[in-house]
Automatic annotation (TrEMBL):
<protein>
    <recommendedName>
        <fullName>Calcineurin-like phosphoesterase domain-containing protein</fullName>
    </recommendedName>
</protein>
<dbReference type="InterPro" id="IPR041780">
    <property type="entry name" value="MPP_PrpE-like"/>
</dbReference>
<dbReference type="GO" id="GO:0005737">
    <property type="term" value="C:cytoplasm"/>
</dbReference>
<dbReference type="GO" id="GO:0016791">
    <property type="term" value="F:phosphatase activity"/>
</dbReference>
<dbReference type="Pfam" id="PF00149">
    <property type="entry name" value="Metallophos"/>
</dbReference>
<dbReference type="InterPro" id="IPR050126">
    <property type="entry name" value="Ap4A_hydrolase"/>
</dbReference>
<dbReference type="InterPro" id="IPR004843">
    <property type="entry name" value="Calcineurin-like_PHP"/>
</dbReference>
<feature type="domain" description="Calcineurin-like phosphoesterase">
    <location>
        <begin position="2"/>
        <end position="193"/>
    </location>
</feature>
<dbReference type="InterPro" id="IPR029052">
    <property type="entry name" value="Metallo-depent_PP-like"/>
</dbReference>
Length: 242
């Protein structure tokens, strides 16, 4: 029994509201379910939203206590590289997380950095649940990639089915891999903001653009249903794909 949470992007308030709506109890400081349900995170915990570091801390505690599942997204990958000291551009949302980070004291910075590096390095590239009946992968995964972790699979899982070309707004051109998926495993993913959860074959995109003012969505397994809460942030129509 798993509740997969879409791209949070620092929307901590919405994350808390959604988990409470799903029946999770926060009395211990982290969301836990009395009936043994567990949260699963589809990646992109941080960037753009107001409280990325609180999201990191909560997810870190959940994973540390073996109370949830997490796989990284492309924003997680970039933040990881930033924390390692690699040269990355603090743009496309990373600047908000870095600004939060730079306001902390040195010991607190070290704590957050260590927590996130541990979280990222411990995480599987994608999650396989219920004997392969449920797959959680940030930008999705092709059927023939399931069970593999090559660099090609990693690029696909983090960024989607990119062509190498860019749209006028600078975002990469991506093919819709889900139209060609005909596997039996249910694939839950995010990465590309949609106004409503997008079902195609045995796949569902649950990134409903919380950070762009729409909703934060969870997919409940095995119930095969979605539950959402509205975002408190300003709505940005231009961010959503048709």
């Amino acid at each position: 029994m798993i509740d997969v949470i879409g791209d949070i992007h620092g929307c901590y308030e919405e994350f808390e509201q959604l988990t409470k709506k799903l029946g999770y109890d926060w009395s211990t400081g982290i969301p836990l379910h009395n009936n043994g349900r567990k949260l699963s995170f589809v990646g992109d915990l941080t960037d753009r939203g107001p409280e990325s570091l609180k999201v990191i801390t909560t997810v870190y505690q959940l994973i540390k206590e073996d109370k949830a599942f997490y796989s990284p997204g492309n924003h997680c990958n970039k933040l990881y590289r930033f924390f390692l000291g690699n040269k990355v551009q603090t743009t496309h949302g990373l600047e908000t997380t870095v600004a939060e980070y730079e306001k902390l004291s040195s010991p607190k910075q070290e704590e957050v950095k260590k927590s996130f590096i541990w979280l990222y390095e411990k995480a599987p590239l994608y999650q396989v649940h219920d004997n392969g009946k449920l797959i959680v992968a940030h930008a999705g995964i092709k059927e023939e990639y399931i069970g593999k972790t090559t660099s090609r699979v990693k690029t696909f899982v983090l960024y989607g089915d990119i062509t190498g070309e860019t749209n006028p707004d600078g975002t990469p051109v991506r093919r819709d891999w889900s139209k060609h998926y005909n596997g039996t495993a249910m694939i839950v993913y995010g990465h590309t903001p949609m106004k409503i959860p997008k079902r195609t074959n045995r796949t569902i995109n649950i990134d409903t653009g919380a950070v762009f003012g729409n909703e934060l969505t969870a997919y409940r397994y095995p119930e095969d249903e979605t539950i959402s809460v509205p975002s408190s942030l300003p709505y940005d129509e231009a961010r959503f794909r048709a």
